[in-house]
Amino acid sequence: MDASRIADAVAAERDRATALFDALRRDGLDEPGVSRDPYGAGEQRAHATVAAAARSLGLEISGDAAANLYMTLPGRDRTANSIIVGSHLDSVPHGGNFDGAAGVVAGLVAAAALRRLGIPLACDLTVMGIRAEESIWFQVSYIGSRGALGTLPDGALEVRRIDTGRSLAEHIAECGGNPDALRAGARHLDPARLRAYLELHIEQAPSLVEAGRPVAICTGIPGNFRYPDARIEGSNDHVGLPRRFRRDAALAGAEFAMALDKMWEEHDAKSIPMACTIGRFHTDPAQHGMTIVPGTFHFSLDVRAYDETVLAALDARVDAIIAGIEQHRGVRFHRGPKARAAVGPVDSTIRQALTEGAAALGLPTLDLGSPASHDAAAFAAVGVPMGMIFVRNANGSHNPNEAMTIDDFLAGTALLTWWLAQNAG
Ligand SMILES: [Zn+2]
């Protein structure tokens, strides 16, 4: 199939894509930005809107115990291993409209374009609207995708949403899922029955803006280790206490942050990609005050890298930094629960094919390690061949100022559709 015909068929879906993005924005509007709370009203409305759009395209609709949404364009052989194109439909509070949703809309546009081109599919193509990817709400990553794959971590169903205080199990049940089946280890998707998982996502850093290119081909998704709720215990003391007697938890926190930044700087100098983020960093508001030496300090930590060996070395380094600070400041770090996500390797065959597709489409691309975590990593972790396409987006994500143009979206979706035409056709 001529690449320009594929690009034209995708471009012909511009109005459908725009209307769907507009509807999703209306559904999630929560000024400033959109809030699609996972297993809550915001995400529910997005699922209903996307399912209606899929129905109008004649796709088959189904669900699973984690209440994910599957929208399938049937292939000639219904028993053949299938292809999934997906992304998540939840958002952070007051986030942007495109983070996650763009990948689902891309899947629907690709299905519509393939149908428009009259390309018969050899196997089923399923567009997946994934639940609860944003870990800010339940502090567990990839809930929907890992729920579908039967790889949710122990205890995940008992964690509570930070705003409602209610358990993940309760939220899932409310949205038509089956937490008991998930608890029993049920899986809806058998990795051995999947040919590939592809995801289109807005870029969450300005690399494509900087390079002046519309689309990037993902080289890998970082793994991470996280302490969502850590604290440092020292001693609350009077402002007059001499330094040698102090056990200042806030200064211990400051020293910890600077040591992590130094660790990152060293890795940057060696061109080893990683990142560390202290999203929460504060004294205890119930106790702090201008004339009190802080005895308690709270923080969260996310450390990520693209290589399991690098990640393990960073983990050990963080332990060593903590041990050093505890010793010379007389404080104790209570790290609380630790969460992990494995590195998500991109399938080299898919990556190569996407590079060829971009050349055929005349699309300038960039090879890019994903700055962020994605459901695609959960698929890669169970051995499903995985690939990702990033679309240029100014102003980052997790904020209302995301700026993806519809032209760039259609360019990325043309590449996705090209790959599907080659591999499912
Ligand atoms: Zn996302």
Helix-strand layout with pairing:
Blueprint: H1 3-11, H2 14-28, H3 41-56, E1 60-63, E2 69-73, E3 82-88, H4 101-117, E4 125-130, H5 135-138, H6 143-149, H7 168-174, H8 179-183, E5 194-202, H9 207-211, E6 215-221, E7 223-233, E8 237-238, H10 249-269, E9 274-277, E10 281-283, E11 292-293, E12 296-305, H11 308-329, E13 332-334, E14 339-341, E15 344-345, H12 348-361, E16 365-369, H13 375-381, E17 386-391, H14 406-423
Parallel strand pairs: 3-4, 3-5, 5-17, 6-16
Antiparallel strand pairs: 1-2, 2-4, 6-15, 6-17, 7-12, 7-13, 7-14, 8-11, 9-12, 10-12
Helix pairs in contact: 1-4, 1-14, 2-3, 2-4, 4-14, 6-13, 10-11, 12-14
The structure holds zinc ion.
Write a structural description:
It is a single chain. The protein is of the alpha+beta class and about 425 residues long. It has 2 domains: about 5-220 and about 345-425, Zn peptidases (Aminopeptidase, 3-Layer(aba) Sandwich); about 225-340, Alpha-Beta Plaits (2-Layer Sandwich), CATH 3.30.70.360. It has 14 helices and 17 strands. Strands 1, 2, 3, 4, 5, 6, 15, 16 and 17 form a 9-stranded mixed sheet that branches. Strands 7, 9, 10, 12, 13 and 14 form a 6-stranded antiparallel sheet that branches. Bound molecules: zinc ion. Zinc ion binds near residues 100, 133 and 201.
Radius of gyration: 23 Å
Q: Per CATH, what is the topology of the largest domain?
A: Aminopeptidase
Task: Provide the CATH top-level class of the largest domain.
Answer: Alpha Beta
Write down the overall mean pLDDT: 96
Q: How many runs of DSSP E, i.e. beta strands?
A: 17
Question: What percent of residues adopt helix (DSSP H or I)?
Answer: 25-40%
Secondary structure tally, helices: 14
Distance between the termini: 10 Å
Bound molecules: zinc ion
